Fold this protein.
Amino acid sequence: MPGPLDGIKIVELSVAITGPLAAGILVDQGAECIKIERGPGGDIMRHLGSKVQDISSSFQICNRGKRSVVVDLAHPDGLAIVKDLITDADVVIQNYRPGVAERLGLAYSDVAAYNPEVIYADLSGFGPTGPHANRRVYDTAIQAASGLADNQTGLNDEKPVFLRQLIVDKLTAHTMSQAITAALFAKSRGAGGQRIELSMLDAAIAFLFVDGADHEILLDADHSGTQSMTASNVPITLADGHVAVAVPDNTGFHGLADAFGVDSSDPDLANLGDRLKHQDKAREIRKQVMENAQTVTVEEATEALDARGVPFGIIRQVEEVADDPQVKANQTFVAHTHPTAGRVNQPRPPAVFHGTPVALRQHSAPTLGQHTDEVVAETGRGDQINALREAGVIA
């Protein structure tokens, strides 16, 4: 089935993860996307990480189901092709550095002149103006500037810690995809087209400050606790693995203690308010749990914690996730054979639409320029393809 965004056409002028993933989320929900790439190498993510020829793991996830067109935007004929594609597009997504879209003639003001109904997603690193607007930006720079890296620093760490993933790229992409959908909804109610500006810095700060900057929101509150409400969370070591628990309520706290044979019946620990007043005693219970757990197997801990209603998760290695019984029950992963990259096992779109079911029209990400000829022909230039290629306009 085509999905809720069937009929939406996207022209993507972006590389790496933020723009491509934002478009990719919409493609997963039924939209069509024409991805404009620059030769000879195309999107940089084609070549980073595990890859087969020009398809990397990350590129596959972010770009499955798109059509790839290699066009030289610096050539007037190449720019004309892209403008023709944008003329009837619903969405344009670009993450060029500030000023590049303007120099190419693809800024919002240029595009809106011939497609006033377009939703124009304008992504940047630090923002369109300000002292850092023109800096080159990658994920780690924004992890640093937004406070995310500092937020990961524990009591015994000597320096800030980066998340071992491109978290800012991904959360910015998710934020933009939601904003695009909201703009499309507003357009359907008569609001017309519009430009959406989103910086990675703003997206990261909004993400962090939900729960990781506790002292910076209510400025007159008691700030004796930690900035992040999860700062004290550490895994519990078992005899043959690790488990993570969350015990904010009485059932969790006392259930955890009982599961590992620790007596928590002290009246000073009865309720959350009591435990906050007697934190030394609460920490002692946790210490005893940690000690006792080292002789308990994963299977035993699972049974004991489940029986007591304690929120927990066995810590899986990444390579174990696809075989987790719950993941299998959810049918989270779908396997197929990519015509170039070979066997692929990837997560399906996570949201399940029961009224407008989604099925990936194309499970594979495109090879570089795979659809150049067919897309150029759709602009009415089918008889010019050889000449355009000889002139270096397309590849």
Notes: The first helix runs from residue 18 to 28. The chain has two domains: 9-209+328-390, 236-314. The mean pLDDT is 95. Residues 9-209+328-390 form a domain with the Rossmann fold fold (CATH 3.40.50.10540).
